[in-house]
TrEMBL record:
Pfam families listed in its UniProt record: HEPN
UniProt cross-references to InterPro entries, sorted A to Z: HEPN_dom
Gene3D superfamilies, per database record: Nucleotidyltransferases domain 2
Name of the molecule in the record: HEPN domain-containing protein
Recorded coiled-coil stretches: none
Domain HEPN, chain residue ranges per copy: 11-117
Species annotation: Thiospirochaeta perfilievii
Record lineage: Bacteria, Pseudomonadati, Spirochaetota, Spirochaetia, Spirochaetales
Amino acid sequence: MDDSLDPKVWINRAKGNLLRAKLPMEDGMYYEDFCFDCQQCAEKALKGLIVHLGLTPHKTHYFGKLFEEISKRLILPDWCEDVFELNDYAVITRYPDDFVEVTKEEYIRALEIAERVYTWISGIVK
């Protein structure tokens, strides 16, 4: 079976990103990288939910497109709008020339959002 068609694979990958986002801060580590993992956790979890719903996820980092697919089959929680805060972390944190410093407070917020998405979706995709 193609792993991209198995929602549990997506959820496990999301969990891996979430666990990495929670690693203790050490020298040479950046909140930007942790926020990228938060974004990836949410994206992969959402794609896992899309697969679980019998749909094919778009190859996109934009949450709007993912929520559009999910909303065809589920009513989205009100807090889903918060997930859009993670959109920029898909790109701005990846390359030194696009580097935008992320504060500890921004990281904590990103982690809260990623945890909420992961918890919601892992409760659906079992």
